[in-house]
Specification:
With 217 residues, this protein is mostly beta strands. Strands 6, 7, 10, 11, 12, 13 and 14 form a seven-stranded mixed sheet that branches. Strands 1-2-3-4-5 form a five-stranded mixed sheet, with no helix packed on it. A two-stranded antiparallel sheet has the order 8-9. A hairpin with a 2-residue loop joins strand 12 and strand 13. The radius of gyration is 18 Å and the shape is elongated.
Length: 217
């Protein structure tokens, strides 16, 4: 994997080179972008309160080509609930969406795969649960999720107010996003990162991304 750097001299950016992740410097800050089959993202790295003159403003986004269906989200919540006070780890791969449970070591405060390479290159979304605790990303998660370009999610409050927290990860840079950008949520599931949380550094709401459905049913 190689890294590239460009200046946003106009609002429409050139296509991201294949096999690269790319830092983009715009008038409103520094961003990183990456793409893979079924997923593309351009997310914040650092914002600036002072405009960088001569460059275009960059609009961050995360686009999945087909959201994870509500029935599959519901199945993960059910399995997480049945795991009791132990955390559980899921992998989701696209086209069509496939759910996998790797062989894993589970406890009340952590979960990890027996084989650290179990997820493979096909995994697009990695999810783990926090049983009855609030879903959030810990410092351990930040450390473990440094490599690669994926969506990460945490399920929590399973016994009383089922909730989900979602973020995009691009090679160690993270951005919390509304769950509905990635998942069709079942009724009654609370999104920790509501639309109001998808804000830029100046508290301007980020535009809702377009969903590009190019997967076969």
């Amino acid at each position: 994997m190689f890294v590239n750097h460009i200046f946003a001299r106009q609002e429409t950016l050139p296509p991201a080179p294949a096999g690269l992740y790319e830092y983009v410097i715009g008038s409103n800050g520094i961003f990183v972008r990456a793409s893979r089959p079924g997923l593309e993202a351009l997310i914040w790295v650092a914002a600036t309160n002072n405009e960088i003159r001569g460059l275009a403003q960059v609009q961050p986004f995360v686009r999945v080509y087909k959201p994870v269906p509500a029935w599959l989200v519901g199945r993960m919540f059910e399995m997480a609930f049945r795991a009791g006070d132990k955390e559980i780890l899921f992998y989701l791969s696209p086209n069509p969406w496939r759910l996998a449970l790797p062989e894993q070591v589970q406890s009340k405060g952590s979960v990890f795969p027996v084989d650290p390479y179990a997820s493979g290159s096909d995994t697009m979304i990695e999810i783990h649960s926090h049983h009855n605790m609030q879903p959030y990303f810990s410092k351990t998660d930040d450390h473990d999720e440094q490599a690669g370009f994926r969506i990460f999610a945490v399920l929590g409050n399973l016994g009383h107010n089922p909730s989900i927290a979602v973020r995009a990860g691009v090679y160690g840079h993270f951005w919390g996003i509304p769950a509905r950008w990635i998942f069709d949520l079942p009724a009654g599931v609370h999104d920790v990162n509501s639309a109001a949380r998808a804000m830029d550094s100046n508290n301007v709401e980020i535009e809702e991304p377009e969903v590009l459905d190019v997967f076969d049913d």
